[in-house]
Amino acid sequence: MKTDLITxxxxxxxxxxxxxxxxxxxxxxxxxxxxxxxxxxxxxxVVGAILLAGEHKSTLSTVLxxxxxxxxxxxxxxxxxxxxxxxxxxxxxxxxxx
Amino acid sequence: MTSFPSADIIxxxxxxxxxxxxxxxxxxxxxxxxxxxxxxxxxxxMLLAVAGTLLNRGIVDYKWVAIAxxxxxxxxxxxxxxxxxxxxxxxxLSHAFGALCVTLVGTAEFYLRAPNVPRFMMSVLSMEVxxxxxxxxxxxxxxxxxxxxxxxxxxxxxxxxxxxxxxLAASVGVAAYLVIHPDHTYLFPIILVIPLLxxxxxxxxxxxxxxxxxxxxxxxYAGLSAAAMGFVLDSKLLIVAGALDxxxxxxxxxxxxxxxxxxxxxxxxGAFGQEQIASKGGKEERPVRSATPEEAxxxxxxxxxxxxxxxxxxxxxxxxxxxxxxxxxxxKRGVDVKFGIHPVAGRMPGHMNVLLAExxxxxxxxxxMEEINGEFPQTDVALIIGANDVTNPAARTDxxxxxFGMPILDVDKARTVMVIKRSMGAGFAGxxxxxxxxxxxxxxxxxxxxxxxxxxRELSGGGTHG
Lengths: 98, 466
Prior knowledge:
The structure holds two protein chains of two kinds.
Chain A: H1 2-24, H2 31-42, H3 46-55, H4 59-89
Chain B: H1 5-28, H2 35-54, H3 63-80, H4 87-113, H5 119-146, H6 160-180, H7 190-203, H8 211-233, H9 236-259, H10 264-268, H11 293-302, E1 305-310, H12 312-316, H13 320-332, E2 336-341, H14 351-358, E3 366-368, H15 369-373, E4 381-385, H16 394-397, E5 416-421, E6 441-445, H17 448-462
Parallel strand pairs in B: 1-2, 1-4, 2-3, 4-5, 5-6
Helix pairs in contact in B: 1-2, 1-9, 4-5, 4-8, 5-6, 5-7, 5-8, 6-7, 8-9, 11-17, 13-17
């Protein structure tokens, strides 16, 4: 358990650094879609909610888990949909005019 | 856990691949040419992770899971199809949903494990629940203000910061006590309820102009609470996703606070609305020059380089499509038209870019502050549509101005400045803008959409064969 914890902290730290380096490179042009995309990715929390609702350990946990799945799924679906819609709109100039 | 080792391995591998795909997804967001691949990578990763999770042998009942997945999809689809102008409130709402999920899972996990919760577990669980619940109500409030269900004006009162910090300290204190005495389960609701209240109180002093910072900060909180949930569930995938989201929100918050000349601690402690009270002294009537659409059209047609500076006013007036017509008309005449976009223009980071992209303006014409500022001295006309404080030269020159030091678009360096504005009323922050009194400035009074429309009519009617 203790080593697991340390491993998790390492993972968190490394992911934080990767996050900073990767996201620093995102152009301000795309900051709105970036936010909706990270929001959709963040909704991976649905995984925890699915286990909670499915394992049926207590009525409370099933109820809370079910509501949590609804909330997270709506973020996944809505987040990816709107991000893609936004990105589709970004077009370069057709051809540089002479 | 009753899952067989083989299934367990498959699940872990789907999580590992999903983690890689999530990182790639964000990496591809760095350029508009690859960004859509990023969405696909994210979707694939999500699909894999969810499918992997459903394989888990611990799941004894799929009924509620299935119902909830369907229901979430039914809610999610319309949220993915909102109008582009509603994107800021949609984003705030989705932060609320994400935080709700995290908070509910955290609460359930506590009651499943109590009273024997190890100390580290209790610490991350408290963090998860505190961050989750304050983000939930905070984001709902922000969405309400953006949707104008709630009053957009900041509400401040004496001792506000003390009240807010006190609430935060109280919940952290109770959480610390729970870490040491996890058997006092009756205390747990306190670390739910106080942060719920705190989230609301945190947004009360926030005005519209502060929204880009606040949304970014809530984004970061939502990510960190998900990462904390990853620690509780021992899910590396969730830790990574939460850390990425937290880092993203943090970077955006720092960007926004820099663009508003606020210190980062000022942002972190949520003391946003404070500097709004501007000195309204010295309000003498100074002469301004105004112009008609006809005159404006003439000047624009004669220019060889035009920079358009959009602000929230353009979004409010829904003028972006008219602006596009103006862009087309001028480009056809051989005028070089670009857009200069301040980081805090609009209600969330990147807001203006999305609206202009929706109006079909090529993204390579949308330049951020640092890129465009060097070009103003060579610019014939800077046309400002619905922006105010971000163009205020007092930020550069007047040390007594409340916005002194804020990075601005140097529109006053262009040969001619044209400002479309409803009236001479002060901007959102209530600060007078000396730009309007310059000799080179022409005020175009009217509604942004109809004024730009009139200019376009003049241009296409007046000199089609010019």
